[in-house]
Write a structure and sequence with these properties.
The structure holds 2 protein chains of 2 kinds.
Chain A lengths: L2 H5 L9 H28 L11 H13 L2 H32 L2 H16 L6 H8 L3 H25 L3 H9 L4 H39 L4 H10 L3 H34 L3 E2 L2
Helix pairs in contact in A: 3-11, 4-7, 4-9, 4-10, 5-7, 6-7, 7-9, 8-9, 9-10, 9-11, 10-11
Chain B lengths: L1 E2 L9 E2 L2 E2 H28 L2 H9 L5 E6 L6 H8 L3 E6 L2 E7 L1 H8 L6 E4 L4
Antiparallel strand pairs in B: 2-3, 4-6, 4-7, 5-6
Helix pairs in contact in B: 1-4
The chains are: A mainly alpha, B alpha+beta.
Chain lengths: 275, 123
């Protein structure tokens, strides 16, 4: 094979940006279309009641109705608001504490097993205790959400700070820099890939914990919407809610968190892309 | 360590921010602004002239109102209205609420799924 033929694309039209993008979206959506087709076929067999397997058209209709009557937007707003609150509180405190603890090796060695232990616990495991402590309501949900995000971000930030070679810190101190310079110019950039990884994981786990917490400890939000629908055997609303939860996460992850993580890794990580 | 990748696979930046994250944020902000603008612009048209006049007089701290919806209210809608006043019942597709402050009446009228907000005659 010659060098020219090796570099020339086999089907040039596939390499045009727009066509490639459309193709990429189509290949991404194709498995979902297959899933919907199987779902439709299952519902059409007549072996299941409408409560067991509601047809896709019915779920789409419910989604449209709930959008028109404001219920869907309202529940989404409630869930996203809680996620934002839990994220700001959990990630903010996790990053600050992670950096501060990471600066002191003794404190880090003391705290790390605890954080590792608490990090391994599922957010939903805290639900019973949260209800005992805070009662059913927004405080319990926020606590569960905070719990899921905080320990993940703290753990990853701590790992990131500890992974920064001490020689860089010492270099800044030797050159006359203070603690602020060490944090701003060494620790934060050095730990950034881990911090962003923690944020991405924290958002994912937080989102799951939020839905679970809303099922048990809230009177609004997507989790509540699903749980409440089960009381009336409204499988169409349950499936509609599940779809919305999945779509919201995919959109947030692909449009916000993935680019943020790639950017961080390219800018501050060890991996460099070839020019 | 070098990772081979085409130049087009690199994250495109606008200053220090990834382009895709910036665009996603801009779209969300634009949608929120449009949403708020729509609610602000359409809210007065949902309040009846009678209620408008009563609000303009400002002779009461709270009002009893009837909120007409284009559908039968569900649990979600009742809960929403309970945040603004005391729920007093449902007549068809109209929800009756007691003791609603003027600012809350405008909040209710901003909801796109509300058809009409009127004064209610409640005993």
């Amino acid at each position: 094979m010659t060098a020219t033929s090796a570099t020339r694309p086999l089907l040039p039209f596939l390499y045009r940006p727009l066509v490639r993008r459309v193709w990429s979206v189509a290949t991404y959506l194709f498995p979902f279309l297959v899933l919907v087709a199987i779902w439709h076929a299952l519902a059409a067999t007549g072996r299941f009641t409408i409560n067991q397997v509601p047809p896709p058209a019915l779920v789409a209709e419910v989604l449209w109705e709930m959008t028109l009557d404001g219920a869907l937007i309202g529940h989404i707003g409630q869930s996203l608001g809680r996620l934002a609150l839990g994220f700001v509180a959990g990630a903010g405190l996790g990053i600050v504490l992670g950096i501060l603890i990471g600066m002191n090796r003794g404190a880090a060695e003391f705290i790390e097993p605890l954080v590792s232990f608490l990090n391994a616990l599922s957010g939903i495991a805290w639900v019973p205790l949260a209800i005992v402590w805070f009662g059913i309501g927004p405080a319990a949900v926020t606590f569960i959400l905070w719990n899921s995000i905080f320990f993940l971000v703290l753990f990853n930030t701590l790992l990131g700070v500890l992974s920064v070679p001490p020689i860089f810190r010492n270099a800044v101190l030797t050159l006359g820099g203070g603690r602020v310079h060490v944090i701003r110019d060494v620790l934060v950039p050095g730990a950034m890939p881990n911090i962003v990884l923690g944020i991405r994981m924290g958002m994912g786990f937080g989102w799951r914990a939020l839905i679970a917490a809303e099922m048990i400890g809230a009177t609004s939000g997507l989790g509540f919407m699903i749980y409440d629908a089960s009381s009336y055997l409204r499988s169409d609303i349950i499936i509609a809610g599940v779809i919305v939860i999945g779509v919201l996460w995919v959109v947030t992850d692909r449009l916000l968190l993935v680019p943020l993580e790639r950017w961080t890794v390219e800018r501050w990580g060890l991996v460099r892309r070839a020019e | 360590m070098a990772v081979s990748a085409s130049a087009s696979a690199r994250v495109r930046m606008v200053g220090p921010i990834p382009l895709r994250a910036l665009l996603a944020t801009a779209v969300v902000v634009a949608l929120l602004v449009a949403w708020e603008g729509y609610a602000w612009a359409t809210a007065p048209s949902r309040i009846t002239p009678e209620l408008h006049a009563a609000l303009a007089r400002g002779d009461q701290p709270t009002y009893d109102i009837a909120v007409r919806l284009p559908f039968a209210p569900r649990q979600f809608h009742i809960r929403q209205f309970q945040a603004y006043g005391t729920f007093a019942g449902v007549e068809g597709t109209t929800v009756l609420i007691r003791r609603v402050e003027p600012a809350a009446i405008y909040d209710i009228a901003r909801k796109y799924w509300v058809e009409r907000v009127d004064l209610a005659r409640l005993d």
